[in-house]
Specification:
single chain, 202 residues, alpha+beta, eight-stranded antiparallel β-barrel, globular
């Protein structure tokens, strides 16, 4: 599950970003001229121009787990539930995200979306989701999510959920400035709610 949002965790994340060293080559990032951060701690290297496809294409493909997203844990906590979010980026620029949920009354299951990811400018990326679906757990079943919309059995509910999802995919939730990026960590800003999201590559 996601780490709970806290002032201390947010400060640590902000510190990592403010003291980062930017580089075009992670393998040669901390050279003799890079120096060190406060208290003699060597800063973490982050790729230059993380919003550009030419930069993130080498590290993005794979499965990522969201480990810190204060807005998600706060909203889920108010409702007495929790989310566990993973997403997979593919080499062709498509991506799929699965959020396992567990809430009172609603129960457990997966909320999934798919679409594409790309570049806006040198520091800003975007995701354009165009399909959405759910897989509620039935009884004690806890199988994985449906991998795509096509795997979901046909029903009016399937069409309604996909239509609602499409309506919610607006630019305010599609554009993300990237504050930090290396080969297994990304931090991007969710400007709509003034928070940051951190994910680790699995």
């Amino acid at each position: 599950t996601l780490n709970q949002g806290s002032k201390e965790r947010t400060q640590l994340l902000n510190k990592m970003i403010s003291e980062k060293v930017t580089t075009k080559d992670l393998n040669n990032a901390l050279t003799s001229g890079s120096g060190s951060g406060e208290d003699g701690i060597i800063p973490t290297a982050s790729l230059e121009n993380p919003g550009l496809e030419s930069t993130f294409s080498s590290v993005a493909p794979g499965t990522w787990k969201v480990i810190y997203a204060p807005h998600i844990t706060t909203i889920a906590g108010i409702a007495g539930g929790k989310f566990d979010v993973q997403y997979t980026c593919f080499n062709d620029g498509t991506m799929t995200s699965h959020a396992r949920y567990n809430f009172p009354v609603i129960g457990e299951g997966y909320l999934s979306v798919s679409g594409t990811y790309g570049s806006v400018d040198n520091i800003v990326s975007r995701v354009d989701f165009d399909t959405a679906w759910v897989k509620p757990f039935v009884g004690k079943s806890s199988d994985g999510p449906y991998e795509s919309l096509e795997d979901v059995p046909a029903s009016p509910v399937k069409d309604i959920i996909n239509s609602i999802g499409k309506a919610m995919f607006i630019d305010a939730v599609a554009i993300f400035p990237v504050s930090f990026l290396d080969d297994d960590t990304i931090v991007f800003d969710f400007e709509l709610l003034g928070t940051r999201i951190c994910a680790k590559k699995l």
